[in-house]
Amino acid sequence: MTMTIQDAIEQGTGDAQLRGWIWRERGSNKMKFLVLRDSSNIIQCVCKRDDFSDEQWDAIDKLQVEAAVELEGTLKKDDRAPTGVELTVKKLTIVGASDTFPITKDQSTEFLADNRHLWLRSRKMTAILKIRSTVFGAIHDYFRSNGFYEYQSPIFQSVQCEGGSTLFNVPYFGQEGVFLAQSWQLYAEPAIFSLEKIYTMAPSFRAEKSKTSRHLTEYWHAEMEIAWANFDDVIDVGEGVLKHITKTVLERNKLDLEVLERDISKLEPVTKKQFPRMTYDDALKILKDKCDMDVEWGKDLRTVEEDKLSELYDTPIIVTHYPKKVKAFYMKEAPDNKEVVHGVDFIAPEGYGEIIGGSERESDLESIKERLKEMGEDVKEYEFYLDTRKYGSVPHGGFGMGTERVIAWICGVENIKDTIPFPRTMLRWTP
């Protein structure tokens, strides 16, 4: 019976049937060394000339990288093998030939992007995608185990949530004013009056003209909204989900983190420590006192300020009470200071930037209308949303988490483009 390569490694000795793709190959006219890969790991396989007919050996001798094969043989432990176990092959079946696989060592980032459909086979991408799967599963598990219902909102939307400059306009049967979703939020808030605690995992779209290593035009958004909640409740859920994600990856993806050469000692504090919480004013004081950075009050924190703050801590940082003028119209004004809002950003350690943005939502109908007018928005377009404040409104809040940013931080990769199978950016929409 066929087993995974990881199962074979753990078995260590005895007979085994394996299948996978050739990751590396070398040898002579007497012996062939094939390193086989599957989704679980790699293993060295040895083919000896004397164990095969002339016809079989001729086919084995011509095998190239990425050929798909099925193997039968005997396992033995060997410290010289890449993963400590070796298979002596007695039978080999070629399932799918490969001829001059185009991806070799030291190729450009652009070449790998053009051949993304093949680069997905690399050990690096396989490890990242497995961690990505764990992250997605952990998000679902956290919310469902805490009484949240999964809820979906439309991808085609008629109002903007996060700023008109980053909207993707969509041709829609001759209608104007239809956009790809920046967030589910405006369509999620109406549902809390039914389900009370909801979350989603869905793509969001931002037409940001950015070429940085932190931005995608299409990314996966983990969002939640909760009724009967104050500002601290929102923050507590954000900290809880990040702790659960990190703990789950450390438990389930040890081998994948090793492939990525990720230092797990940098992740372990996340599961053990309470995240530091500070106000925007606190953050500015810390930046001035400890980083010699003088930030004018009222400016949003840029990447450089976030990175400097993150260097001072080994867990995500929670920054609250941002100036109202740099935050969205739906964020609740702080009762004791009308110039700031109950908005929060979670900043990842190691310079990975903002990974969660959230707030307690503004409950006052007239305040929302005024903020919309200040943005130049037509209040009538938001009537469905404003109705939520007219009929039994309750304190509530929520957040959005950039899943790819979380994955980039956990994996320790430099570019967010490596965290999603087929990245979409300002300059990349194929393959």
What are its keywords?
431 residues; single chain; alpha+beta; OB fold (Dihydrolipoamide Acetyltransferase, E2P); 26% strand; 14 helices; BirA Bifunctional Protein, domain 2; eight-stranded mixed sheet
Description:
The relative contact order is 0.11. The chain has 14 helices and 17 strands. An eight-stranded mixed sheet has the order 6-9-10-17-16-15-12-11. It has a five-stranded mixed beta barrel with strand order 1-2-3-5-4. It folds into two domains: about 5-95, OB fold (Dihydrolipoamide Acetyltransferase, E2P) (Beta Barrel), CATH 2.40.50; about 115-420, BirA Bifunctional Protein, domain 2 (2-Layer Sandwich), CATH 3.30.930. It has helices at about 5-10, 55-60, 110-115, 115-120, 125-145, 185-195, 230-250, 255-260, 270, 280-290, 305-310, 365-375, 385, 405-410; strands spanning about 15-25, 30-35, 40-50, 70-75, 85-95, 150, 155, 180, 195-205, 220-225, 275-280, 315-320, 335, 335-340, 345-350, 355-360, 395-400. The mean pLDDT is about 95.
The dominant shape is elongated
Largest sheet: 8 strands, mixed
**How would you name the CATH homologous superfamily of the largest domain?**
Bira Bifunctional Protein, Domain 2
CATH A-level architecture of the largest domain: 2-Layer Sandwich
Kindly estimate the percentage of residues that lie in beta strands according to DSSP: 25-35%
Distance between the termini: 37 Å
Helix and strand topology:
Layout: H1 5-11, E1 14-27, E2 31-37, E3 42-48, H2 54-61, E4 68-77, E5 85-96, H3 109-114, H4 116-119, H5 123-145, E6 149-150, E7 156-157, E8 179-180, H6 185-195, E9 197-205, E10 218-227, H7 231-252, H8 254-259, H9 268-272, E11 277-279, H10 280-291, H11 303-310, E12 317-320, E13 333-334, E14 337-341, E15 343-348, E16 353-360, H12 365-374, H13 383-386, E17 396-402, H14 403-411
Parallel strand pairs: 3-5, 6-9, 11-12
Antiparallel strand pairs: 1-2, 1-4, 2-3, 4-5, 7-8, 9-10, 10-17, 12-15, 13-14, 15-16, 16-17
Helix pairs in contact: 5-7, 5-14
